[in-house]
Design brief:
Shape: flat
Number of helices: 21
CATH superfamily of the domain at 3-224: Histidine kinase-like ATPase, C-terminal domain
Largest sheet: 8 strands, mixed
Distance between the termini: 57 Å
CATH architecture of the domain at 3-224: 2-Layer Sandwich
CATH class of the domain at 3-224: Alpha Beta
Helix content: 25-40%
Number of strands: 23
Amino acid sequence: MSENQKKTVEKGYSAESITVLKGLEAVRKRPAMYIGDIGKRGLHHLVYEVVDNSIDEALAGHCDKITVTISEGEIITVEDNGRGIPVDMHKEEKRPAVEVVMTSLHAGGKFDKDSYKVSGGLHGVGVSVVNALSEWLKVEVYLNGSVYEADFERGAMVKGTTITGKTKKRGTKVTFKADGKIFTHNVFDWDILEDRIRELAFLNKGLSIDMLDERDSEKRFQAYLYKGGLRQFIEYLNENKHALHPQVIVIEGEKDDVPIDVAFQYTDSYTENILSYVNNINTIEGGTHLSGLRTALTRTLNNYAIKNNMFKKTNSTLSGDDVREGLTAVVSIKVAEPQFEGQTKTKLGNGEVKGIVDSFVSDQLNDFLEQHPAIAKRIIEKSLMAAQARDAARKARELTRRKSALESGDLPGKLADCSTKDPSLCEIYLVEGDSAGGSAKQGRDRRYQAILPLRGKIINSEKARIDKILENNEIRMMITAFGTGFKEDFDIEKLRYHKIVIMTDADVDGAHIRTLLLTFLFRYLPDLIINGFVYIAMPPLYRVSVGKKEKYCFDDEERDIAIKKLTDGGDPTKAKIQRYKGLGEMNPDQLWNTTMDPETRTMMRVNLDDAAAADRIFSTLMGDVVEPRRDFIQSHAKYVTNIDI
């Protein structure tokens, strides 16, 4: 523990630092406004809010250890060794500051820049929202040699701050149980929490974060401590790829009071993967810091190539797409007053940041290239090959440009368009095969549902360059139908359908086709996912009928329950069970009733909560390296169901 951590009360962080903006009572009435939703995503967001408070202590230099525990009954405990939430009396509220923090919305030290120069937490709603949405919550503060405790139920205090013991520790421990009356999903997923905890450990070099799951007899424990920070983050992301140079390029320092941390490495893949963060927040829509990095990279590599006579033609130049082919990069900055914008409020808008990052990265990268000419040569050669492919792709891209309503008479699948022209009301179904496409065309509502049948399996976008991808007829059909254009032509305002629905068979081949489609969208049209326009249809696996009564079921458990219900607990052999291996086995009415009718269908929206995890899984399952894929299959084999033999 550092000397700073040993100080029990830091100057400038006391009850006077706590600023109050009231209004906690609204949280329980409209929880989705504060945490996104009341399902699985919102449930896990509660943990992130508490952990973010501890991370802010680490950012301020007062914490180097955090422990997250999941206990029996889905109880969460987050403990840190920071300064501890102040327990002295708040001047305005006339009660201990810890109670103010726990019961007042937007109350905390983050509004006082003497306490925190920077802070994370996307919404800034704080631990008070967690308190409001918990059946019960207990906070313990270790401060001045004493243990202070306060207890709450559904946001209301039931036990005021009292000293319950002595301690040599310092920090804060928050324990809570999410309110089952609020959340529709009440089970914490280790993998979801682990992805975020691992990400935070990468972003905060030297910070130790432990995870413990006590729900099973075999307790699960994982410790995260990355002394290499972003360098190890890049190694983790590229674990399933072939690196062009073994050394990860690291650029870190501070310019104009903005700490900048950048790490990147090139691989032999054909897509880019750049993750950007501001104050530990994943800015999935990018922003000025990402623009600064991209500009610096393009200009510096071009200047180096010109200086060293690496262009065969005097007027040659590398585009941004060229220099980013095969690039895996992470940029993380800290900003005192971040301004977020965009559809998901995860796009940095601070104008001054672009120039700061651009200037800093350009200077540092130029020095690195001069000192490592062999690495520079590999990167430039990779970029030059990408430029050649870009020229070859230009003609293919022309075929995807939309000239009018849809001039695509040569398309083999032939889009069955809808009559409505308002994109916000329109849906397009990407359907596997002509048979299912025929049923979908007959069963759809022609006013707002379009059908695009796809023949066979599209090209694996993880293993091909852009020119080869655009030669694929199914890919061209999709881009043309979407209307957004592609790469530099992309314009999301021209999207013709605000629901792009992937509808494939519920078998192995259908899952493979769905994965190929998601790979293409994730790698080349990620804005469609980021803005929430991509969905996966959920066709039923079974139809159970007894006489005129019928029930559609999505898994074996639903099927067994339906049999009991339809037979009134009697002879199960009276039930007729039909298993759908393909969409083509359904007649148009069945397909409409089960999968396409907005009143009865079930669909999953594809989101990009964790870009790092998404990149890794696509690289593992769809990339060239075999061993990681084999290891993944072996480790997840016990979870597989409904294997078609």
